[in-house]
């Protein structure tokens, strides 16, 4: 399993009246982490779009564990939790500098043709990308998901 890491400097604008990171900003950080993972393995989301495909979010789940505040740094860890014929699930941890987990999350995505929104297997869009996801996806109990 490959885990990508991206540091986030928490800006004042990302906090709420309580001085905590506003919950919706975690979604932005997940996208930053996902983009970093994709770039780390040699691909770009922009490249997929240039080919006429997009990968919308079909589901997202976040569990908030320990608040982050302005002035702190966080790290987003991202991996391929599962990858099937049509769906890819990414796993995430947003952690404090000391390693304390601030949030855990997953997001599910499909690849679709930009003009019709019809689902297309990643294997047909980019066989090398699909193969890399198969190679790096999470392994549970010695079995690939």
Report on the structure:
With about 140 residues, this protein is of the alpha+beta class. It has a single domain, classed as Thiol Ester Dehydrase, Chain A (Roll). About 25% of the residues lie in helices and about 35% in strands. It has a five-stranded antiparallel sheet. Strands 2-7 form a two-stranded antiparallel ribbon. Strands 8-9 form a two-stranded antiparallel sheet. A hairpin with a 3-residue loop joins β4 and β5. The N and C termini lie close together (about 10 Å). About 20% of the residues are buried. The mean pLDDT is about 95. GO terms for molecular function: fatty acyl-CoA hydrolase activity. It comes from Planococcus salinus. Belongs to the 4-hydroxybenzoyl-CoA thioesterase family. It holds the Pfam family 4HBT_2. InterPro entries: 4-hydroxybenzoyl-CoA_TE, HotDog_dom_sf, YbgC/YbaW.
Summarize the structure.
Belongs to the 4-hydroxybenzoyl-CoA thioesterase family. One of its GO terms (molecular function) is fatty acyl-CoA hydrolase activity. The chain contains four helices and nine strands.
Q: What structural keywords apply?
A:
single chain; 145 residues; alpha+beta; Thiol Ester Dehydrase, Chain A; five-stranded antiparallel beta sheet; two-stranded antiparallel ribbon; 4 helices; 9 strands; fatty acyl-CoA hydrolase activity; 4-hydroxybenzoyl-CoA_TE; HotDog_dom_sf; Acyl-CoA thioesterase; hydrolase
Write the layout of secondary structure elements.
Layout: E1 4-9, H1 25-40, H2 45-50, E2 53-54, E3 57-64, E4 73-83, E5 87-96, E6 101-110, E7 112-113, H3 122-125, H4 127-136, E8 139-140, E9 143-144
Antiparallel strand pairs: 1-4, 2-7, 3-6, 4-5, 5-6, 8-9
């Amino acid at each position: 399993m490959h885990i990508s890491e991206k540091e986030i400097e928490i800006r004042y604008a990302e906090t709420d009246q309580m001085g905590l990171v506003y919950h919706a900003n975690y979604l932005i950080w997940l996208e930053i982490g996902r983009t970093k993972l994709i770039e780390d393995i040699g691909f770009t989301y922009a490249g997929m779009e240039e080919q006429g495909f997009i990968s919308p979010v079909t589901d997202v789940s976040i569990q908030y564990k320990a608040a982050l505040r302005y002035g702190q740094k966080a790290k987003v860890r991202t991996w391929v939790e599962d990858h099937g014929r049509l769906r890819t699930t990414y796993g995430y941890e947003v952690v404090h500098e000391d390693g304390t987990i601030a949030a855990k999350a997953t997001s599910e995505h499909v690849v679709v043709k930009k003009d019709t929104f019809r689902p297309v297997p990643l294997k047909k869009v980019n066989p090398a990308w699909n193969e890399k996801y198969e190679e790096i996806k999470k392994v549970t109990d010695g079995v690939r998901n």
